[in-house]
Write a structure and sequence with these properties.
With about 375 residues, the protein is of the alpha/beta class. It contains 13 helices and 7 strands. The strands form 2 sheets. It has a 5-stranded mixed sheet with strand order 1-2-3-4-7. The radius of gyration is 23 Å and the shape is globular.
Length: about 375
């Protein structure tokens, strides 16, 4: 029959009304320039990332440097291929962004302009450190001081989107999460590289850690002055146990295969960083909430609990050259291991995607102070 029953007409009217409301909502989202998925799911409006090669996602691609990863086999498991990430797939912050509800990866500063900057940017750079000279042995890179300056430029570019209303911009930034992971290269490509740098003879381990914390405090304060209020700072991981060190260190006669000289020095820095977080949270930077992420304990536990997380190879890179695949990083077009999910390390320095995902999931909602202090990342996002 061509005519509908009264019941069918009422149902059709209800459906049309619901469709109209949905279309109106979608139109409003489009007019505000925000994606439907991000509005619905992301816990914070933006995610801004500072750091080194552990979280770099392509900022070094156009630089004259050995610290580049925009060639295969890097990115072999990443949808966009060799993007500049120093791993086979996603980095730790890629996994963290997904946990925070972002449907897409945070884009690199080097290739992002326009309204896209409002959702967050990644400023990280392979070989970067707290000290400006750190990483010079590898070529050009973007130091932490430069990364902070780049963020300052972005803040200026954001103002038109808030019609020049500084209070509105400040409110927006106060809701965003900032991540800063620095310090690894200040040890690997500075303090313990005695043939290239003189810091090892200028400073005791404690004095060097103190000097790093002093400089880092200034850099984090600069981020605060630019609007950062919810900040994650990561300690340095168990660098003395990465394949690069295992390939060079002869632990004969020692109870550990790792280079504990490096590990001990790093823990001095980590201890100072946690105290700095206390200082900032207890009135040092009014209105801020800093979270210390204990990367050292997290990486240590990842190796200790490798089997329960499905890992079988804990001391060798999936690709690389020499002992433990740790003497040289992955060469262009080198054949990588087949089952990357069984390896903790991708190359001499960096974790695999599988390790990054496991670490992010464990840390995100961990009970403080297991890996985060004084609150966890999930709690920070909800503030």
């Amino acid at each position: 029959m061509l005519h509908r029953s009264m019941h069918d007409q009422i149902n059709m009217g209800s459906l049309m009304k619901e469709f109209g409301l949905w279309a109106l909502a979608l139109s409003l989202l489009i007019l505000t320039g925000k994606s439907c998925s991000q509005v619905i799911t992301s816990q914070v409006p933006g995610f801004f990332i500072f750091g080194d090669s552990l979280v770099d996602n392509g900022n070094n691609n156009g630089l004259v440097t050995l610290a580049r990863a925009n060639y295969r086999p890097y990115g072999i498991d990443f949808p966009q291929g060799a993007s500049g990430r120093f791993t086979n797939g996603r980095t730790f912050v890629d996994a963290l962004a997904q946990l925070l509800g972002f449907r897409t990866n945070i884009p690199p500063f080097a290739r992002t302009r326009g309204r896209a900057i409002l959702g967050g940017l990644n400023f990280a750079s392979g070989a970067a450190g707290i000290r400006d000279e750190t990483g010079n042995n590898l070529g050009d890179h973007i130091t932490m001081n430069q990364q902070v300056n780049n963020f300052g430029t972005i803040v200026q570019q954001m103002r038109p989107y808030f019609r020049g209303d500084n209070n509105a911009l400040a409110t927006y930034l106060s809701k965003c999460i900032f991540y800063s992971g620095m310090g690894s290269n200040d040890y690997l490509n500075n303090y313990f590289m005695r043939d290239f740098y003189n810091t090892g003879s200028q400073f005791t381990a404690q004095a060097y850690a103190d000097a790093l914390i002093h400089d880092y405090a200034n850099q984090l304060t600069a981020l605060y002055n630019l609007g950062a209020r919810k900040v994650i700072v990561t300690g340095v991981g168990q660098v003395g146990c990465i394949p690069y060190q295992l390939a060079r260190y002869n632990g004969t006669g020692s109870s550990s295969r790792c280079n504990e000289n490096i590990n001990n020095a790093i823990q001095l820095f980590n201890s100072g960083l946690r105290k700095l977080v206390d200082h900032f949270n207890n009135g040092g930077l009014q209105g801020s909430q800093f979270v210390y992420l204990d990367s050292y304990q997290a990486t240590k536990d990842l190796i200790l609990n490798a089997q329960s997380n499905g890992f079988e190879v804990i001391d060798k890179g999936c690709c690389g050259v020499g002992r433990n695949n740790g003497q040289v990083t992955c060469l262009p077009l080198q054949q990588a291991c087949r089952d990357r999910s069984k390896y903790i390390f991708w190359d001499a320095f960096h974790p695999t995607e599988a390790a990054n995902i496991v670490t992010a999931r464990v840390i995100y909602s961990s009970r403080p102070p297991t890996y985060t202090y004084p609150i966890n990342i999930q709690q920070l996002a909800s503030l």
